[in-house]
Amino acid sequence: MKDIFIVEDDALIAMLLEDMLSDLGYRVCATAPDLERALAAAKDTEFDAAILDVSLAGRSSLPVAKLLDERGKPYLYATGYGSAPEGSTPSTLPVLRKPFQLSELEQAMKLLAEA
Known about the structure:
Blueprint: E1 3-7, H1 11-23, E2 27-32, H2 35-44, E3 49-53, E4 55-56, E5 59-60, H3 62-71, E6 75-79, E7 95-97, H4 102-114
Parallel strand pairs: 1-2, 1-3, 3-6, 6-7
Antiparallel strand pairs: 4-5
Helix pairs in contact: 2-3
């Protein structure tokens, strides 16, 4: 699991996340700042796993999660809200609470790989 798709509406957080993932040996193969681009990339891009912001400019990323479920792609949520969005499929996938440290991201990625 090396190629990661990031869905994040805050450009600074997306860049920080990309840098952190690179430090951990992952490659970010795609990013999307809004729901429409996230859905398009989730359909058309090859990646191993995804990190989804729960809220994209006030819109839930749940449609992206459902598409990833259909494709069998693992993902985790990164959120300042503390939990996955309402309506999420119950799962053992980790939720990364913002703000997070490199060690927390590393642990979440390990859990994601094991899921």
